[in-house]
Sequence to fold (155 residues):
Amino acid sequence: MSVTTAFKVRPKFLAALVASLVVPVALYEAWEHFDLGMALLDFAFLSTPLWVLAAWWLWWRTRKSDTSQISNPGALFALASISTNAFVFYGWLVYRLAVGDIPFVWRLKDDLSYIGITSAFAGLVTSLLCQGSVRVVVAIGSILGLMIWVSIGIL
Fold:
């Protein structure tokens, strides 16, 4: 059984997701200045919204035609959790760009990180427990959602 039939995902969709792995590496000018920790953070920062949108798209595509009954409430909760995480982080980022670099912005990030990390972790745990093809994409989005709150380079 191939990957595309196991998750009911088209090859173009998989190619777009794999291409999102390449973008942070391509941002660096020279290999000798390549820092794996910062590359992971760049990848998380750039591709988290893409994975969240991909998860919603996959869920929308695979849901039952009867909209009165939710077929997989665990997947829906996991999607809502990673969406909340992305909304909180990128909402803070827009606020930071609007106000500037003042100490209150960084205290606000620390306070919002509790909401973001909790919702990303809830999405990860729920995606591991739920069923369906969307759970893999949600799990990757959750892990990346956890990484966007990290303030320092890792590894």
